[in-house]
Amino acid sequence: EDIVALEAAGMCVAPTLIDQDPKVVKSLTAILQEVGIDTIQHDIMSDNRISRLLRTICVTTKDDMLTLLIEHSNIDNLSGVQKHDLLAYFAVLCVKGDKSEVRFERVGLLPLFKTA
Q1: Are the beta carbons of 101 and 64 closer than 8 angstroms?
Q2: pLDDT at residue 116 greater than cutoff 60
Q3: 99: phi then psi, degrees, rounded to nearest 5
Q4: How far is residue 15's CA from residue 10's CA, in Å, rounded to a whole number?
Protein backbone atom coordinates (compact mmCIF):
# COMPACT_ATOMS: atom_id res chain seq x y z
CA GLU A 1 0.00 0.00 0.00
CA ASP A 2 1.18 3.49 -0.87
CA ILE A 3 0.19 6.88 0.36
CA VAL A 4 -0.74 9.29 -2.40
CA ALA A 5 -0.78 13.05 -2.02
CA LEU A 6 -4.25 14.54 -2.30
CA GLU A 7 -3.25 16.55 -5.37
CA ALA A 8 -2.31 13.28 -7.12
CA ALA A 9 -5.69 11.67 -6.37
CA GLY A 10 -6.84 12.48 -9.91
CA MET A 11 -4.57 9.64 -11.03
CA CYS A 12 -6.12 7.16 -8.55
CA VAL A 13 -9.00 4.84 -9.35
CA ALA A 14 -11.78 3.89 -6.96
CA PRO A 15 -12.61 0.37 -8.20
CA THR A 16 -15.62 0.04 -5.88
CA LEU A 17 -17.21 2.98 -7.71
CA ILE A 18 -16.35 1.54 -11.13
CA ASP A 19 -18.07 -1.80 -10.54
CA GLN A 20 -20.21 -3.30 -7.78
CA ASP A 21 -19.26 -6.97 -8.24
CA PRO A 22 -16.66 -7.85 -5.55
CA LYS A 23 -14.86 -10.30 -7.89
CA VAL A 24 -14.57 -7.65 -10.60
CA VAL A 25 -13.39 -5.07 -8.06
CA LYS A 26 -10.70 -7.45 -6.81
CA SER A 27 -9.53 -8.26 -10.33
CA LEU A 28 -9.54 -4.61 -11.46
CA THR A 29 -7.64 -3.57 -8.35
CA ALA A 30 -4.92 -6.15 -8.98
CA ILE A 31 -4.65 -5.21 -12.65
CA LEU A 32 -4.52 -1.47 -11.98
CA GLN A 33 -1.87 -1.85 -9.30
CA GLU A 34 0.19 -4.14 -11.53
CA VAL A 35 0.29 -1.54 -14.32
CA GLY A 36 1.29 1.24 -11.93
CA ILE A 37 -2.04 2.95 -11.27
CA ASP A 38 -2.87 3.63 -7.64
CA THR A 39 -6.24 2.55 -6.28
CA ILE A 40 -8.41 3.76 -3.44
CA GLN A 41 -8.90 1.14 -0.71
CA HIS A 42 -12.32 -0.45 -0.85
CA ASP A 43 -13.25 0.14 2.79
CA ILE A 44 -12.42 3.83 2.70
CA MET A 45 -15.25 4.45 0.25
CA SER A 46 -17.74 3.18 2.83
CA ASP A 47 -17.14 6.30 4.97
CA ASN A 48 -19.58 8.85 3.51
CA ARG A 49 -17.57 11.91 4.57
CA ILE A 50 -14.39 10.69 2.94
CA SER A 51 -16.21 9.18 -0.01
CA ARG A 52 -17.91 12.50 -0.86
CA LEU A 53 -14.52 14.21 -1.03
CA LEU A 54 -12.79 11.47 -3.00
CA ARG A 55 -15.60 11.15 -5.55
CA THR A 56 -14.88 14.68 -6.70
CA ILE A 57 -11.16 14.15 -7.31
CA CYS A 58 -10.41 10.49 -8.07
CA VAL A 59 -11.27 8.38 -11.11
CA THR A 60 -14.76 6.96 -10.68
CA THR A 61 -15.90 6.16 -14.24
CA LYS A 62 -15.05 3.35 -16.59
CA ASP A 63 -14.11 5.75 -19.39
CA ASP A 64 -11.76 7.76 -17.17
CA MET A 65 -10.19 4.50 -15.99
CA LEU A 66 -9.67 3.53 -19.63
CA THR A 67 -8.00 6.89 -20.25
CA LEU A 68 -5.58 6.26 -17.38
CA LEU A 69 -4.85 2.80 -18.71
CA ILE A 70 -4.12 4.18 -22.18
CA GLU A 71 -2.07 7.19 -21.13
CA HIS A 72 -0.39 6.29 -17.83
CA SER A 73 0.02 2.55 -17.45
CA ASN A 74 2.53 -0.12 -18.30
CA ILE A 75 0.35 -2.88 -19.73
CA ASP A 76 3.48 -4.94 -20.40
CA ASN A 77 3.62 -5.64 -16.64
CA LEU A 78 0.47 -7.76 -16.91
CA SER A 79 0.52 -11.52 -17.31
CA GLY A 80 -1.30 -13.06 -20.25
CA VAL A 81 -4.18 -14.00 -17.95
CA GLN A 82 -4.47 -10.44 -16.62
CA LYS A 83 -4.44 -9.01 -20.16
CA HIS A 84 -7.19 -11.45 -21.07
CA ASP A 85 -9.20 -10.49 -17.97
CA LEU A 86 -8.93 -6.79 -18.83
CA LEU A 87 -9.95 -7.43 -22.43
CA ALA A 88 -12.85 -9.61 -21.24
CA TYR A 89 -13.96 -6.87 -18.83
CA PHE A 90 -14.27 -4.34 -21.65
CA ALA A 91 -15.81 -6.95 -23.98
CA VAL A 92 -18.58 -7.63 -21.43
CA LEU A 93 -19.26 -3.90 -21.18
CA CYS A 94 -19.46 -3.73 -24.96
CA VAL A 95 -21.88 -6.66 -25.12
CA LYS A 96 -24.06 -5.00 -22.48
CA GLY A 97 -24.23 -2.09 -24.92
CA ASP A 98 -23.81 0.83 -22.54
CA LYS A 99 -21.90 3.08 -24.90
CA SER A 100 -22.41 6.08 -22.63
CA GLU A 101 -20.01 4.59 -20.08
CA VAL A 102 -17.02 3.77 -22.29
CA ARG A 103 -15.86 4.83 -25.73
CA PHE A 104 -15.14 1.26 -26.84
CA GLU A 105 -13.12 2.15 -29.91
CA ARG A 106 -10.40 3.30 -27.50
CA VAL A 107 -9.98 -0.17 -25.98
CA GLY A 108 -7.99 -1.03 -29.12
CA LEU A 109 -5.38 1.51 -28.01
CA LEU A 110 -4.39 -0.81 -25.16
CA PRO A 111 -1.66 -3.28 -26.15
CA LEU A 112 -3.74 -6.30 -25.19
CA PHE A 113 -3.67 -7.99 -28.57
CA LYS A 114 -0.91 -10.12 -30.05
CA THR A 115 -0.21 -9.24 -33.63
CA ALA A 116 1.57 -11.30 -36.29
Answers
A1: no
A2: no
A3: -70, -15
A4: 14
